[in-house]
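Dig into what follows:
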Amino acid sequence: MHWVLGIILTIVLFVGLSKWNELDPPARKAATWKVVLGAGAAVLLLLVLTGRVHVLTAAVAGLLPLLRKLPMLLKLLPWVKKVAGQQQNSGGPGGQRRQEATANNGEMTVAEACRVLGVDRGCSREEVVTAHRRLIQKLHPDRGGNDYLAARVNEAKEVLLRQFS
């Protein structure tokens, strides 16, 4: 079995060296890097599979060659932030105003509170309490609900009840 592997490696080495001689100097440099990185990746994979190196250590070692591309990626960072900001603000007509209203002071507006509880703007105190009770029974974390949604429902109730006091 070992002699078969030896023959295969000899053939691969022969073909690789014959291709190597056909390359011009800049292409040789690029090919050298590819061979070195490929061999390093193969050795890391072998070490991970045999249990000699932890997977995270191998992942960090595998990402090290990408560090030379980091300055180019950092140049793109402002562009990425700008694109992400445009996608957030394009929430349809009035979407940006709504975001600004909540972002200015961090509190929920009365219109948002009415929308969360599903009540009209001129509702009574009893309607607010009933809508809150109905929603919190569905969304409470103890009943399989979500912490965030339960907090939003509670905040909406507080905002609307402030109008009556």
Observations:
- The two ends are 88 Å apart (CA to CA).
- The CA atoms of residues 58 and 165 lie 62 Å apart.
- Helices lie at 2-22, 25-49, 55-63, 70-89, 95-105, 110-117, 125-139, 147-162.
